[in-house]
Write a structure and sequence with these properties.
CATH topology of chain B: ABC transporter involved in vitamin B12 uptake, BtuC
Strand content of chain A: under 5%
Number of strands of chain B: 4
CATH architecture of chain B: Orthogonal Bundle
Radius of gyration of chain A: 21 Å
Structural class of chain B: mainly alpha
Number of strands of chain A: 2
Radius of gyration of chain B: 21 Å
CATH topology of chain A: ABC transporter involved in vitamin B12 uptake, BtuC
Strand order of the largest sheet of chain B: 1-4
Membrane topology (chain A): Multi-pass membrane protein
Strand content of chain B: under 5%
Largest interface: A-B, 50 and 47 residues
GO molecular function, one term (chain A): transmembrane transporter activity
Structural class of chain A: mainly alpha
Family (chain A): Belongs to the binding-protein-dependent transport system permease family. LivHM subfamily.
CATH class of chain B: Mainly Alpha
Distance between the termini of chain A: 50 Å
Number of helices of chain B: 14
Helix content of chain A: over 70%
CATH class of chain A: Mainly Alpha
Protein name (chain A): Branched-chain amino acid ABC transporter permease
Shape of chain B: globular
Number of domains of chain A: 1
Oligomer: heterodimer
Order of helices and strands of chain B: HHHHHHEEEHHHHEHHHH
Number of helices of chain A: 13
Largest sheet of chain A: 2 strands, antiparallel
Order of helices and strands of chain A: HHHHHHEEHHHHHHH
Strand order of the largest sheet of chain A: 1-2
CATH architecture of chain A: Orthogonal Bundle
Transmembrane segments (chain A): 20-43, 50-69, 75-99, 108-129, 164-181, 210-229, 249-271, 283-303
Distance between the termini of chain B: 14 Å
Amino acid sequence: MLKDIFVTPFVDMATAPDFLMQVLWEGLVSGILYALIALGFVLIFRSSRIFNFAQGIMVVFAALTLVGLHAMGVPAWICVILTLGVMFVLAVTVERVVLRPLVGQPDIILFMATIGITLFLIGFGEIIFGGENKVMITEELGIPTDSVVFEPFGGLLILEQKDITAVVVAALLVVALLAFLNKTRMGRAIRALGDDHQAALSVGISLQQIWVLVWFIAGIIALVTGIAWGARAGVSFALEVIAYKALPVLMLGGLESITGAIIGGLLIGMLEKLFEIYWGQPLLGGNTETWFAFVLALIVLLFRPQGLFGERIIERV
Amino acid sequence: MLYRTAGQFKTSYKADQALFPVRQDAVLLGVILILAWVVFPLMASEFTFQTLLIPILIYSLAALGLNLLTGYAGQLSLGTAAFMGVGAYACYKMITLMPWMNPLVAILLSGVFSAGVGVAFGIPSLRIKGFYLAIATLAAQFFLVWLFEKWGWLYNYNASGAIQVPNLEMFGVYVAGPQASSTVQYYVVLGIVTLLTIVCINLTRGTLGRTWKATRDMDIAAELIGINLMRSKLTAFAVSSYMVGVAGALFVFMWRGAAEPNLFDIPLSFRILFIAIIGGLGSIMGNYLGAILIVGLPVVLNTLPAAFGLPISPATVEHLNVMIVGALILFFLIIEPHGLARLWALIREKLIIWPFPH
């Protein structure tokens, strides 16, 4: 038994390094997507202290809108622009209808409100686009669908080009986002709001505008995530489950940290794949991916209650 | 006029601290109890029992358990459904291992198992706070549901992987299983829920409840005035999980009749959290109001299109339901973030001074 836990998996890894690399690559790709969703969470949490549960459904909603518009015969790239428009309308609506009346309420009420938004969007999306699984318009968007084959250590490593595209686009998005937050006036306003609401308001930063902006950025991230994930797994409301995966990513990385979201996402993506392949399937009957991330995050939090990169929690009476 | 409290003088501390300092409250509760114990069972049809009365009571109990933890002790939990599952599976194992056991005893004991599991997952709450704590309960949620699916011993290795409630007899009457009548099941559920509600009301009024509230309001301050945080938080997890576990056992044994692991998935957790929040965190009555709204609403919405003769397909009705429930959650949060219980409290205040505004 102990041998199965502590020896055999590592022997397997060492004897088939190409398979190990394949597993790690798969983990990396899903990790990137977790990180993207977590990024949307972090942005909204930093600027408004709202734990936005609806980020996962925004991914589905963006992807559905894109595919749905294309099914109506709109050219692919115009679909993207129109979808961005829809996400902007969504951001404005959410801010006007939901957030404005709820300013200053306890965190848990706002959290509940985002779950309300989630339910509303699920019902709305299913009425308009139908609940069945759809195929992402990968080729129409110019994303290559071939695969690249490497042969490291005399083995075989298959990288799908759409996964590579997803990784590259995600990396570009993160860089652009960091540049926006650090270099532009609006980005600085977002960060100021995150540091101290009242101080930011007193120097003339508009809370409402920034909230719309932040939700819109979260919408853009959702669209990118939706395209990337939809290319792998199709577009349906089953995508929603990845929203739950973003929660441990956030906790692991720390709720306020963009770096944390990215590193947490990659870590969880790769470790859960490794655990599933080398320990979960042989020893525990598989499907451990449903809970591994949560247990991992829980263990890390026991040692660092604010997550790996979160702001230190200082409590005063 | 109806709610006039003038003239009800308190002449001793005992009278001042009574359960119902205002006579009308007691009368109102009496009326509700008579309705629940006598009038509804006489009038209700099979459909009403199965779609409204029984589920509302069971959901109220689950929300009550969650409310003790989240509303009174301030520890956010997103894993309620999993703890319900623990209760249900524990009850199933006890009934199948010891068929001579009284079903009522089995149901009440099953909560003990879920309390144990609840305390185990509550231990991180001593170090982790706020939203970070949600991860501990989410870990419980996903891990336990996975365990229900993979651990064959729990469902006696049957091929379907689901648990099936056998016919259970108590004093010569079937109380659970296919042969039990809805009226009997309703009374069993109502009895247990009434009993546990009385326990909860008194717990929250006593030392334990006050300790929980102090922990919720500010745990460091509570610690400074001499409250043992570990005891306070872990008792909250234990009592809450007990209630939730009993609710889970009732959920399967008195209502569903069978259960698969994914019945206890996260949507159920959220549903119960909705009930607790829409009803009002930190109130007992709110859970009932919330359950009536969340359970009753889809039933009403399902009958509406047919009543108006609108040609809408069942699938669309389903989706519309989800959408409307989402919108209503937002609506209620916006008009009264502190829940229906607060709304009732405001109405009551108004009634007391009515017809004079001051």
